[in-house]
Amino acid sequence: MNIAEYLASTLKNLRQAKGWSLSRLAEATGVSKAMLGQIERNESSPTVATLWKIATGLNVPFSTFIAPPQSGAPHAYDPDRQAMVVTPLFPWDERLHFDLFSITLAPGAISESTPHESGVIEHVVVISGTLEMCLNGQWQTVMAGSGVRFAGDEAHAYRNSTGETVHFHSLIHYPKEKKAGGGN
């Protein structure tokens, strides 16, 4: 099963396990009913930002959608130009309550993230290049070898204003009540 098929079946299974209609899922995620239906039918590839909205609305770890069990190296990306590529290094860990991702951001790319669920803390460490981040409405520069920790339950954005790809790691630490694949 490829990553798009995995995403489609996972979304449908999670929605049905909750007993939700597409309308109810749209209400919980802020993603249109039409888009959710297209994703479930594997007719559309969602952006990373859309996947975050869905994961937050379903109260599941982000890696639930991109890390099928026993897979190689699944990833999520912005399909229009692969502006942001997200590869799980360590998908959801039940004991530690985190996901760890390796992320690349193409030159000139920007990725805006809606707030994750309450209590999420994000740690970003730049491996190579220069990353700009918008936190609390203010842009700041994070150089290679540096990191920043922030509340992921507030809107934030990543931007690459340079001509070189930026590579960074993002550790997403979820509140203790999060359940892999199901939520509360």
Show the helix and strand layout.
Elements: H1 3-18, H2 22-29, H3 33-40, H4 48-58, E1 76-77, E2 84-93, E3 98-105, E4 110-113, E5 121-128, E6 130-135, E7 138-143, E8 147-151, E9 156-159, E10 166-173
Antiparallel strand pairs: 1-2, 2-3, 3-10, 4-9, 5-8, 5-10, 6-7, 6-9
Helix pairs in contact: 2-3, 2-4
Summarize, please.
The chain folds into 2 domains: 3-65, lambda repressor-like DNA-binding domains (434 Repressor (Amino-terminal Domain), Orthogonal Bundle), CATH 1.10.260.40; 76-173, Sandwich (Jelly Rolls), CATH 2.60.120.10. Helices cover 23% and strands 33% of the residues. It has 4 helices and 10 strands, in the order ααααββββββββββ.
Features:
single chain; 184 residues; alpha+beta; 434 Repressor (Amino-terminal Domain); Jelly Rolls; 2 domains; six-stranded antiparallel beta sheet; four-stranded antiparallel beta sheet; 4 helices; 10 strands; 23% helix; 33% strand; globular; disordered C terminus; transcription regulation; transcription; TransReg_Diox_bact_type
Describe the protein.
There is one protein chain. The protein is α+β, with helices and mostly antiparallel strands. It has two domains: 3-65, lambda repressor-like DNA-binding domains (434 Repressor (Amino-terminal Domain)), CATH 1.10.260.40; 76-173, Jelly Rolls (Sandwich). The chain has helices at 3-18, 22-29, 33-40, 48-58; strands at residues 76-77, 84-93, 98-105, 110-113, 121-128, 130-135, 138-143, 147-151, 156-159, 166-173. It has a six-stranded antiparallel β-sheet with strand order 1-2-3-10-5-8, with no helix packed on it. Strands 4-9-6-7 form a four-stranded antiparallel β-sheet. Strand 2 (84-93) and strand 3 (98-105) form a beta hairpin. Helix 2 packs across helix 3 (33-40) and helix 2 crosses helix 4 (48-58). The protein is globular, with a radius of gyration of 16 Å. Mean pLDDT is 86; it is low at 70-74 and 180-184. One of its GO terms (cellular component) is cytosol.
